[in-house]
Design brief:
The structure holds two protein chains of two kinds. Chain A contains eleven helices and 14 strands. Chain A is an alpha/beta fold. The longest helix of chain A is centred in the middle third of the chain and has 12 residues. The C terminus of chain A is likely disordered. Helices cover 81% and strands 0% of the residues of chain B. In chain B, helix 3 packs antiparallel against helix 5. The longest helix of chain B is centred in the N-terminal third of the chain and has 38 residues. The two termini of chain B are 27 Å apart. By secondary structure, chain B is mainly α. Classes of the chains: A alpha/beta, B mainly alpha. Chains A and B meet through helix 2 and helix 3 of A and helix 1, helix 4 and helix 10 of B. The complex binds adenosine-5'-diphosphate and magnesium ion (MG). The site of magnesium ion (MG) has 5 residues of chain A, from helix 1. Adenosine-5'-diphosphate binds next to strand 2 and helix 1 of chain A.
Chain lengths: 312, 260
């Protein structure tokens, strides 16, 4: 749905992003993760045709950002880092205005506004002046604006910044609800946010993409040897026998005996062998009580990626 | 077209969201009202004195021409007040979008820079027309209590309309260059004033420069309108003037876009 190739952007002498390449699949929520000044906003501004890159190219919904910017602007909704709100207007007037400039047909405007008001849960403040709303509500009005005319693609730049925890949870839920109907890019410098809302993540640091993968794979890629702890009902010998055929096991230890029948087994492997382990245990008539993996959190990966070397 | 209309409506309404618009409206009405009163009372006094004098010396009173003595200078007066007032209307036209960050919305929706510029310009002109309405009331008093010629009044308003539009195109252009409204107002006034007085310098220059500067001068083309003459060459001048102002505004809107 979105294909980004080698985007580079200079502000005067300063290079903000360099050779940024990634892609976004239809219907997914992609997280653009990076610390402050990493180049998230710059990347998003290019994809929304707010400004052109210095070099590189991108296709959004199949349209080229240079030659078909108008088409892209028709199918894209954008919530900039600072929500672009006319503070003197009421919420309803604002959304009606945005509908008009987005080319919503006259007779559909009212229902369109109703739809986004509902999606963003701002029904109670429709008649209020935007400038008088709380930060959380302003953000929601901004989100509502980005959803007008049911855009195929929604680009959200740090939508939870500056909100209190309750508001953050609500906004995240609103974003999760977009999945499937819209293709979403969401930027953030907060890891749990990306972990909770996105399937795939592009990590960007100092203007460069340092990783692109599913949240799950990224964690896997980094954890190297994975430790799996199993709680099995059975004696040592039969457990050993059952796990014997799994060749990817590098190390097998029996932890302290819990009681006569239950053993804690610690297995180490480079591959994800959780399924194999479970199958082997069950097929040999043993009882699998627990299986847990020790994994690096995305937080650790993020630190690793942005402070140490790149992932090979 | 619909997008232009949307910008126009939003902009025109938003004048009235802020107290500034009401202050401007009140001030403009007060100033034009005071001047109308002053012109009117001196006119009445002059014709009254003449009537007395005529009676004293047993002569027929001469007929005073209200068009010549009141309406014509009054139009000049409104033009001058407009010079000072319009920059305060145009200052926010584009600067405000930059300050609020709403340019980021405008540039990422299917609306085009031409539609943005045109909608904003027309909103400014519409507000100016609203400003002129009270002066029409003042002048209608003359029609109730006297019988001035109507057509020169009409042509005067046509002239004001074009002159005001020209000022607005200048102000809009300055407004696209900055996010600071004060700078936009001062810049808009400065440039308008310059275009007003440029004809004065003409007296000291050689004849070609003189005629060029004289042609550029925004106010030289107003004279005929105030005198009751609607000359298409002057209309052409003002149309060209607005076109150039809007063209530069458009270029600014487009280039700011690409500069981020
Ligand atoms: N308009 C601008 N002019 C100059 N430098 C800029 C501008 N916008 C961003 N930058 C610089 O580009 C880099 C990337 O910024 P940005 O894309 O805003 O990062 P992020 O959104 O990830 O915080 C930063 O170093 C920032 O200082
Ligand atoms: Mg940013």
């Amino acid at each position: 749905m979105i294909d980004v190739k080698g985007l580079t952007r200079y502000y005067g002498e300063k290079r903000a992003i360099s050779d940024v390449t990634f892609h976004v699949n239809k219907g997914e929520i992609l997280g653009l993760l990076g610390p402050n000044a990493a180049g998230k906003t710059t990347t998003m501004r290019i994809l929304t045709c707010y400004m052109p890159p210095t070099s590189g190219s991108a296709k959004v919904g199949g349209y080229d950002i240079f030659d078909e910017s108008l088409e892209i602007r028709k199918i894209t909704g954008y919530l900039p880092e600072n929500p672009p709100l006319y503070t003197d207007m009421t919420v309803d007037d604002y959304l009606t205005f945005v509908s008009k400039i987005k080319g919503v047909e006259k007779k559909r405007i009212k229902s369109e506004v109703d739809t986004v008001v509902e999606k963003a849960s701002i029904g109670d403040v429709r008649d209020r002046i935007i400038g008088k709303l709380s930060k959380g509500f302003k953000q929601r009005v901004g989100l509502a604006q980005s959803l007008i005319n049911n855009p195929q693609i929604v680009i959200l730049d740090e939508p939870t910044v500056g909100l209190d925890p309750k508001q953050i949870i609500e906004i995240r839920q609103l974003i999760k609800n977009l999945k499937g109907d819209h293709t979403v890019i969401l930027s953030s410098h907060i890891l749990p946010e990306i972990e909770q809302t996105c399937e795939r993540v592009v990590i960007i640091n100092e203007g460069k993409v340092v990783a692109e993968d599913t949240v799950e794979n990224l964690t896997n890629r980094l954890r190297g040897v994975q430790r799996i702890t199993l709680l099995i009902e059975g004696n040592e010998d039969s457990i050993k026998q059952a796990l014997q055929p799994i060749s990817d096991i590098q190390k097998l230890d029996f932890a302290a005996k819990k009681d006569d029948l239950i053993r804690e087994v610690v297995v180490e492997s480079e591959k994800d062998i959780r399924k194999d382990l479970a199958k082997a245990v069950v097929n040999n008539g043993l009882g699998l009580l627990e299986l847990s993996t020790e994994r690096f959190t995305l937080e650790e990966i993020f630190l690793h990626l942005t402070t140490k070397e790149e992932v090979a | 077209m619909r997008a232009t209309l949307a910008i126009f409506q939003k902009e025109f309404k938003s004048f009235f969201y802020s107290p500034i618009a009401y202050v401007i409206l009140a001030l403009f009405t007060a100033l034009t009202g005071v001047f109308f009163y002053l012109y009117l009372s001196s006119f009445v006094e002059a014709s009254f004195m003449d009537t007395i004098r005529a009676q004293q010396y047993g002569m027929a009173p001469q007929k005073f021409n209200v068009n010549l003595m009141l309406i014509r200078p009054y139009f000049w007066n409104i033009a001058l007040i407009s010079l000072f007032t319009l920059p305060t209307i145009t200052m926010r036209l584009y600067s405000e979008e930059k300050r609020l960050g709403t340019v980021e919305l405008l540039y990422t929706t299917p609306i085009t820079p031409t539609q943005i510029v045109l909608g904003k310009f027309l909103a400014g002109v519409a507000f100016y027309v609203v400003l002129l309405i009270p002066t029409m009331f003042f002048q209608s008093l003359l029609f109730i209590y006297g019988d001035p010629e109507f057509l020169p009044v009409l042509s005067g308003y046509i002239g004001l309309f074009f002159l005001g539009s020209a000022f607005i195109s200048v102000g809009l252009f300055i407004s696209t260059t900055t996010e600071n409204q004060i700078i936009a107002a001062i810049g808009g006034f400065g440039l308008s004033l310059l275009l007003w007085v440029v004809g004065w310098g003409a007296n000291f220059a050689s004849s070609t420069i003189k005629s060029v500067l004289g042609y550029i001068s925004i106010i030289n083309h107003f004279e005929d309108f105030a005198q009751g003459v609607v000359d298409t060459s002057h209309i052409a001048y003002y149309l060209l003037f607005c076109f150039i102002g809007l063209y530069f505004s458009l270029k600014m809107v487009e280039s700011v876009k690409w500069r981020a």
